[in-house]
Amino acid sequence: MKKFLLMLLCTGFSLTTGFSQKTLSDYSYVTVPEKFEFLSKKDDYLLNSLTKFLFNKYGFNAFFEKEIPEQLSRCDGLNATVEKEGGFIYTKLAVILKDCKGNEVYRSSIGKSKIKDFKQAYHQALRRAFKDVERLGINQKEIKKEEVLTIKKNDEINTSETFASGEYTYKEYTLIKNDKRYTVWKNNEIIGEAVPSSKEGYFVIKTTEFIGIGIQNDEYFSVERYEAKKPKLFPMLFKRNNQ
Hints:
By secondary structure, this protein is an alpha+beta fold. The protein has helices spanning 2-20, 47-57, 118-136, 159-162, and strands at residues 29-32, 62-64, 77-85, 91-98, 104-107, 111-113, 167-170, 173-178, 181-186, 189-196, 202-207, 211-216, 220-226, 234-240. The protein has two domains: 24-136, Double Stranded RNA Binding Domain (2-Layer Sandwich), CATH 3.30.160; 159-240. It contains four helices and 14 strands. The strands form two sheets. Strands 7-8-9-10-11-12-13-14 form an eight-stranded antiparallel beta barrel. β10 (189-196) and β11 form a beta hairpin. α2 (47-57) runs parallel beside α3. The radius of gyration is 21 Å and the shape is globular. The N and C termini lie far apart (87 Å).
């Protein structure tokens, strides 16, 4: 009888503990570092920007440390990192999440790539590791942030500062400068935006059609476009419009 009661108490305790544990959706946000330990530079190969973007794509609220809204507490969020595993033939990456006490709460399976080019290999391996993250079906609650002003092309506004040297075109797509960001247009409709990354001149692009990494200079805005179920990158070269 005593053994039965003890088993019942242990079972009840484990159930209570299980139900009280947070799911990843219960956390408010994820912090992505601006540099991973296995790389030598800040946002090297744009891997940190891509990590942040992919977390946002798959249901998280992802920020770099300097971007975290003031109203959020440290333990409301998770700390993300990417680890590289040894290997001669393959580039191997895993995505890890830890809570504010340093406890590991999630680890993806290894994403692999045999591509020889470092940047392409890191990006492919990371996207493959994030397939596990996608399957989680995360849906963190939206965090209220300052609204980003979007401006319609035909609005009568003072363009001397807002759009100075800030319009690029590629086929039916247009990038229009809006403060430090760019809105992405297709056939006179906004489909997304390009947000500055932690590396100057680089942007993370998110639209209803594709995601991408952009590099800007005075004459061109080049974009490496990612599409679902397509392993290769699709280049888009936006040319600056003369104004």
